[in-house]
Amino acid sequence: MRTIPAEVPIPSGFAPITDAEFTRFQQWVFQTTGITLSNQKAALVSGRLGSRLRHRKMASFSAYYKLLQDPNEADELQAAIDLITTNETSFFREADHFKVLHEFIQSLRPVPFPFRVWSAASSSGEEAYTIAMVLADVFGMAEWQVLGTDISTRVLERARKGLYPMERATTIPKDYLHRFCLKGQDRHDGLFLMSRPIRERVTFTQANLCKTLPRLGPFDVAFLRNILIYFDLPQKRQVVDAVRAQVKPGGLLIVGHSESLTGIADGLVPIRPTVYRVA
Questions:
Q1: pTM here?
Q2: Measured between alpha carbons, how far apart are the two ends of the chain, in Å?
Q3: Rounded to an integer, what distance in angstroms lies between the CA atom of residue 47 and that of residue 12?
Q4: How distant is the alpha carbon of residue 251 from its chain centre?
Q5: What structural domains and CATH numbers belong to the chain?
Q6: Which range among 123-127, 134-138, 247-251, 260-264 shows the weakest confidence by mean pLDDT?
Q7: What pLDDT is recorded for position 86?
Q8: Is 150 a catalytic residue?
Q9: Which of 2, 116, 150, 220 is the catalytic position?
Q10: Least reliable range by pLDDT among 63-77, 78-92, 222-236
Q11: 182 or 79, higher pLDDT
Q12: 122, 151 contact by CB (below 8 A)
């Protein structure tokens, strides 16, 4: 899930962000990521991008904004995107959705292997690996795959490692923890690693849901959770249509508990709140 924190300290060492500069960055964030920043997020923009101004030895946000328009600064553009989008997630978040996934699999006769699931806003990988543990529990090592996508290369690098602080394991059922996770030792003390059989079935790749997507599917299930709340209505419609198009007829599209597809659920049949079947 992509979230926007309420308060971020404003860094020192350069001119504070002006109203005009913040408006430019609001527009840039929307055009680049589809996220709508409220007028109360000036502190967030200043706090997140301040480190890049210091690194590039720039005295103003206007100068940094100009830098981001340079086609030769693709790496800087990605660094700014990574900083401005914060990714908050956890293992087995909104746990009833994983029960839905389990029940859906049990209802399939026969199972259409390879069975593929998409974590469309995968952040640092907890959702994708949760899906993988459920699939491994049901299918064993039969043909199943999980794809995780996110706009941020920074969080995708973390996701590919599958290495997490031990305190994040508290929401993983003990049986799954023992079967699918490895306790870190020595320099990895206090960490745990997703087991190799799990990591080998999960792939992560960068994708911007607000831009034209490559052909990633078809998928049997797509998780599109806790990301739509940051888009305006036209962007929501665009994203839902793009994701739905990559799910097989009869497959599932699952959104977050705080989200609704009212008015934008074309081609989707509601099964229960937040769960839709692709027509």
A1: 0.84
A2: 26
A3: 9
A4: 20
A5: 2-87 (1.10.155.10), 96-278 (3.40.50.150)
A6: 260-264
A7: 64
A8: yes
A9: 150
A10: 78-92
A11: 182
A12: no
DSSP annotation string for the chain: -EE--S--PPPSSSPPPPHHHHHHHHHHHHHHH-----TT-HHHHHHHHHHHHHHTT-S-HHHHHHHHT-TT-HHHHHHHHHHHSEE---TTTTTHHHHHHHHHHHH-SS--SSEEEEETT-TTSHHHHHHHHHHHHHHTTSSEEEEEEES-HHHHHHHHHTEEEGGGGGGS-HHHHHHHEEE--GGGTTEEEE-HHHHTTEEEEE--TTSPPP----EEEEEE-S-GGGS-HHHHHHHHHHHHTTEEEEEEEEE-TT---TT--TTEEEEETTEEEE-
Contact status, residue 240 vs residue 264, Cβ threshold 8 Å = yes
Asked if 48 is an active-site residue, the reply is: yes
Q: Which two tokens stand for residue 34?
A: 């589809």
Residue corresponding to tokens 């746990």: 95
Residue among 188, 183, 225, 194 nearest 130 (CA):
194
The catalytic residue among 2, 48, 201, 244 is: 48
Cα–Cα distance for residue pair 93/144, rounded to 1 Å: 21
Mean pLDDT across the stretch 152-166? 94
- Torsion, CA 158, CA 161, CA 164, CA 168, rounded to 10: 80
Say whether the peptide bond before residue 110 is cis (omega within 30 degrees of 0). Answer: yes
Q: What is the dihedral of CA 168, 170, 173, 174, to 10 degrees?
A: 110
Counting every residue written for the chain, the total comes to: 279
Partners of 222 in the beta sheet?
A: 118, 253
Per cent of the chain over pLDDT 90 is 74
> How does 47-69 read in b/e, with b if 16+ C-beta sit within 10 Å?
bbbbebbeeeebeebeebbebbe
Encoded amino acid at 129, one letter: Y
Q: What sign does the dihedral 53-57-59-63 (CA atoms) show?
A: negative
